[in-house]
Every structure is written in C-alpha cells, then in structure tokens.
Amino acid sequence: MTASGEKDKRGNPVYRIQGQLALRGVARDIEFLGSRSIANGWTRLTGHFTLRQTDFGIEPFSKGLGLIGVANDLEVYGDLFLMPESIRQDEP
C-alpha cells in the first residue's frame, strides 16, 4: 500500500493497493485505489476493483440461449476495518 498523493471526495487520503487475488485455484495480481479514514481510533480502508471472471477460469452464468446472463466483468467493493491497538485483547 502506497500513498497516491490524491484525496477522495471527503478529503481522505487515497492509496494504491497491490496484491494477489486467488479464486478457484487461480491467482492474479490486482491493483486498485482505496481511501483511508479514521474514526474513534478505528481505521477504515474502502475500495473497489473490476474482476473478469474468465481470468479465473469462471464461465459467466447464462441461461435461455444466452438471453439471460451475468457480465464477465464484475465490480467488487469492500471495506476493511482495523482495530486500534488500545482495545485489542491478547489471547489467553
């Protein structure tokens, strides 16, 4: 995760997030932008990226001779919350 130097609509810093996503035994590199906000000591990372199903060996759903179906490209949205160290409890 590296700072992009940009800010989102609310003025929160935006980061470039890089990693690997594995689905059905296939791993692909991904990169997307995500914003960071902090409230009550909690850090929230929010972002989204496009996932092409066929890149992971997934055949997009279709029915009725292809008249009904799901697009190959899907938008994946997510939030990650990081707990402040001050409220973390050690395991016994």
Task: Write a brief structural summary.
The protein is built from no helices and 7 strands. The protein is mostly beta strands. The chain has a 5-stranded antiparallel beta sheet with strand order 1-2-3-4-7, with no helix packed on it. Strands 5-6 form a two-stranded antiparallel sheet.
Q: Sketch the major β-sheet.
A: 5 strands, antiparallel
From the helix content, strand content and strand pairing, which structural class follows? mainly beta
User: On the 0-100 scale, what is the average pLDDT?
Assistant: 89
**Distance from first to last alpha carbon:** 32 Å
Q: How would you spell out the order of helices and strands?
A: EEEEEEE
Spans of at least 5 consecutive residues whose pLDDT stays below 50 are: none
Shape: elongated
Strand content: over 45%
The oligomeric state of the chains shown is: single chain
Helix content: under 10%
CA-atom Rg in angstroms = 18 Å
Strand order of the largest sheet: 1-2-3-4-7
